[in-house]
Structures are given as C-alpha cells and as structure tokens.
C-alpha cells in the first residue's frame, strides 16, 4: 500500500471529482440507488487512501520509533490503534 505524496494527491483529486459528481446527481434528482452506488464508490476510495496511510504509518513511524525508542514506539502504536478504531466506526 506504500504510496508517495503524488499518488495520494492524485487519488484524492479523483475522489473530489466523484464527490462533485454526487452533488450534480443530487441537484439533478438522479435515481436514489444510482446516488447510493456512487457514494459506495467514494467511500471505498477513501478507505483505500486511509489504509495506505495506516500501512505507511506502521511501516515507517511505528517501526522506526520502536527501533530508536521502545517507549515512543509504544506511543506510536497506540496512536495507530486509535486511528484504526476511528476508521472502523461507521
């Protein structure tokens, strides 16, 4: 899941376009099921970005901190756990 900044920005711009499309669908009173399908796509795209960020955080911030200072590593791991908990709350 490792992506660089440009990959994240490209994905987020695509999501931004999808959200604008949702706004147009609502303005044009598109069939509700079609709007829900688009919302599902946007949600999945955001979840992929989030998963990439979690992976990157664990591989770099947490692992580096564990190597340098186990106490800091534990704090970073707890921080990551809380972030995942927030992601899973729907």
Question: How would you characterize this protein structure?
Answer:
The chain is an all-alpha fold and 90 residues long. It is 88% helix and 0% strand. The protein has three helices and no strands. The protein has helices spanning 5-27, 32-68, 70-88. Helix 1 packs antiparallel against helix 2 (32-68) and helix 2 packs antiparallel against helix 3. It is elongated and about 55 Å long. The model has no long low-confidence stretch (mean pLDDT 92).
Terminal CA distance = 22 Å
Low-confidence stretches: none
Number of helical elements: 3
Mean pLDDT: 92
Quote the beta fraction.
Answer: under 5%
List keywords for this structure.
90 residues; mainly alpha; 88% helix; 0% strand; elongated
Secondary-structure map with pairings?
Layout: H1 5-27, H2 32-68, H3 70-88
Helix pairs in contact: 1-2, 2-3
Summarize this entry quickly.
The protein is mainly α and 90 residues long. It has helices at residues 5-27, 32-68, 70-88. The mean pLDDT is 92.
């Amino acid at each position: 899941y490792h992506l660089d900044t440009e990959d994240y920005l490209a994905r987020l711009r695509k999501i931004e376009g999808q959200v604008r499309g949702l706004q147009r669908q609502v303005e044009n009173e598109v069939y509700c099921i079609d709007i829900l399908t688009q919302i599902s796509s946007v949600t999945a795209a955001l979840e992929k970005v989030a998963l990439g960020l979690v992976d990157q955080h664990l591989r770099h911030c947490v692992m580096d901190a564990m190597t340098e200072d186990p106490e800091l590593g534990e704090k970073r791991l707890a921080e990551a756990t809380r972030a995942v908990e927030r992601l899973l709350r729907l």
